[in-house]
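Ex. 9. Protein: Phosphoprotein phosphatase.
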Amino acid sequence: MRQQKRLDLLNRHSMSQRSDPKFKLIQEVPHTSLAQILQGASTNRVINARSNVNASSLPQLRSKSIPTTRSDFENTILGKVCHPALIPCPNNLSPITESGNSKSDRPELNGYTQNLSIKDIIQQCNEIFQSTYMCKSYYISSKNAIENVEKQIALFKTLHSIIQQPNGIQKIGVQNISSFIHMIQNHLVHPLSELPKRFLYCDVVPTINSIDWPVVDICYSIFIILIRSFDNKMLTNILNAKFVHGLLSMLKSPDKREQNAVANLTYSIVDFNQQMLPVAFKCLNNFLNDYVTGEVSFVGIETALKMLRQLFRSHKTLAYSINLQKFMFQTVLLLFNSPFAQEIFQPLTGICSFVYEVDEKMPSITLNYLFKHWPLSNSVKTTLFLEHIVLISTKLKKIDQITAEKVFRYIILSLRSSNFQIILKALQICNDLHFYSYYLSYLKLLIPKLQESLKNIENHWNEEIKKKTKEVMKKVDELIASSDRMEDCKPILGIERSNRDEIWSNIRKMTEQ
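Predicted structure tokens for Phosphoprotein phosphatase:
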């Protein structure tokens, strides 16, 4: 009785809030009432992340509109039905965790699947997919909702445990496996609507999770087990270019866990069928190009780069089967200009490092590109550019005077910056003797200009910069002293070299006789 009164009160509150412009977040759509959701009703009518919603048609939202507290979350749902993919998990609610458990008390499910046959389990799993799952749901701490989810998880976990057993696939049978694979093929890969760019605040992507993840996660795991242990033409027919293309389009999912699951499944497919390697590369490259041209948002870009890095490492023949320079010019180098450079820097650097080893021309090409697009105001990006210059210095086969002067010019420019983070990064590079070893032939020309810039920041307001500057100046003085000693030793070394060459020449003549 109390629960019914509470639900009536919530619904009345919902009606009263509809006229308030504060809650007019997204256009009205047919939706399930909160009372129905709390009672565990189907959420099929709720607009979901896997429907073909045109994200560009949604009205603009302020960043503060995304609910971050329980009250904001309830008000948002009560006011208008939001695109569920855009609702982050509130910290003080009880979402379903990756293991399929809730932080709140749960009913015991022991024996729930004990009397079900494998065929019945697969049939019920299929019904779950057709009725409620693959539909992004709200995070609701309702006992009924949790109980329904727990029962559904129990079905998939039972199937997962059977497949993991020795001879588990033989126990299930080819026909049942065929049913499960077709279920996966029909329901696992769905077109996703794009997450609107307004939810990417400057260079921050909101953390967005899905309540249906436990079931989806188990399905991915089962599919990977089947690919690795089930040798059948059926899999070869299913794991084709169309399936890989659809699977990689799922990188648009705002849930990081689903992106990682897509990556792991793709690795298994490529290992199973090497012919899918160029298909996977083409799909990932197109996905990155769509981001560069502004057709898709940043969501999934970091995962796509990590996947490319892993594919290059695991399948080294890939680098020789594609046009590397075209790939670098049209995709990789353009990503250095991304406002999310900090998020993607590690996988981007990993790809560049691999390409530099395969193509000797690319380090100098990339270096010139960085100089041409040097950031003037973005301190984070400047520090990343400086870090990449150090990497390129290790990969250059031959360094001429023009290149050396350019490198030190931008380091000196960074030392003169008004941003203390950029100065600290430049000082860190200047404090590394190993870095100078790549430019030994031109140190006498470069060091005086560097010393002049160091003297200008010797009395900087930042104590850490003052301390680092003194360390660098001391190290540079030692470097000059050792360089002078090397110059003094050159005549002696030249005499020794000529004597050594003469001795070896005499030895060769004696052996010829």
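Check your answer against this statement. Confidence is low (pLDDT under 50) at residues 12-110, 132-147.
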